[in-house]
Amino acid sequence: YMRGASVMTSFGSLFKVLGMQRFRKMNDVAGLSLAAIFVSLLWSWFTTGISSGQVFSVTESWLGSASMVVWILLAIDNEHVYTRDTFRLIPVSDMKLYLTNLLASLSAFVYFGLIHLVLMGISARIDHKFLMDLTHGVADTPVQKALITMGLLIILVLVLMILIWTTISFAHLVVRTTGSFLPNIGRRIVNAILYLLIIYLVVRVLVYLFELVSHFGVSFQGDYSPFIFMISIFLGLAIVEAIINIFLLKKWGETIAN
After folding, report:
1. In which band, very low, low, confident or very high, does the pLDDT at 249 lie, cut at 50, 70 and 90?
2. What distance in Å separates the CA atoms of residue 126 and residue 55, rounded to the nearest whole number?
3. Is 223 helix (H, G, I), strand (E, B) or coil?
4. Which ranges of the chain would DSSP assign to H, the alpha helix?
5. How far is residue 27's CA from residue 20's CA, in Å, rounded to a whole number?
6. What is the pLDDT of residue 5?
7. Which of 20, 73, 187, 244 lies in the 20 to 30 Å Cα band around 111?
8. What is the pTM of this model?
9. What is the mean pLDDT of residues 13-40?
């Protein structure tokens, strides 16, 4: 099939094509994380013994690192879709390709997050007494408020992941698009301005996150406005970048042969 053919690929088929490999990668990373956790605990057991809270801390340490690896792998997969003939020649609109690609990465990230939560739950159960002593001061927080806060935190993380992916795609597509028609000097100027804007965006996001951390305790008391404000800002930026990215994807047809 060629792009623009009358028979278009359905969303389900496209999602399966884009998501299958990513979900396999999530399973591979989860398996390697489990192996690393087991080896670390086994080593501790043979050498110094496993102390109270160590199962939870080791599990969280390895899974936290694995989450960063997962994010990087998914970001790479996102960009490959825009540059490889295998995907760009699929008979599908640019908007459907872009949004399905983003959804496939987000779904894979959520899938790994669920694995993360299950393993953390198991380790928390093992170190239940240690964690209860550690969180003694927080235990008085109403359950409903704590659940709402944690739910907003999860939404914030997912929206932040989307924003980072759309920003990477935005930088990638702008650089490739300007490189196709601007002279070297003009391209360098545009790239410099683009990188400055991205640096500014990253700094602002970090500032917002630090402000959120400072208000984290307040949210447990029922003030969710910092979370809602930040989710709205990040989501708005991601939507604007996604619209620009789809436009650039329509105008830029150069791909790399597989």
Report:
1. confident
2. 7
3. coil
4. 11-47, 54-83, 85-88, 94-126, 128-134, 143-179, 184-214, 216-219, 225-251
5. 11
6. 41
7. 244
8. 0.79
9. 92
92 touches 14 (CB < 8 A): yes
Exposed / middle / buried, residue 235 (Cβ in 10 Å: 0-12, 13-18, 19+): middle
CA torsion through residues 204, 208, 209, 213, sign? positive
* Inter-residue contact 130 to 204 (CB < 8 Å): no
| C-alpha span between 241 and 28 (Å, rounded) | 31
Fill in the DSSP letter of residue 137: T
- Distance of alpha carbon 173 from alpha carbon 244, whole angstroms: 9
The 3-class secondary structure across 32-101, one letter per residue, is HHHHHHHHHHHHHHHHCCCCCCHHHHHHHHHHHHHHHHHHHHHHHHHHHHHHEHHHHCCCCCHHHHHHHH
- Rg of the chain in Å (alpha carbons): 22
Whether the CB-CB separation of 26 and 115 falls below 8 Å is answered with yes
- CA atoms of 256 and 80, how far apart (whole Å): 9
User: Can you tell me the distance from the alpha carbon of 124 to that of 126, in angstroms, rounded to the nearest whole number?
Assistant: 5
d(CA 250, CA 244): 10
The answer for residues whose C-beta is within 8 angstroms of residue 148's C-beta and 6 or more apart is 224
Q: List Cα–Cα distances, 121 to 125, 141, 146, 190, in angstroms.
A: 6, 20, 17, 48
**pLDDT value at residue 151:** 83
> Angle at Cα 256 formed by Cα 254 and Cα 258, nearest 5°?
145
Give yes or no for a contact between 75 and 164, defined as CB atoms under 8 angstroms apart. yes
Bridge partners of 138?
Answer: none
Helix (H, G, I), strand (E, B) or coil at 256: strand
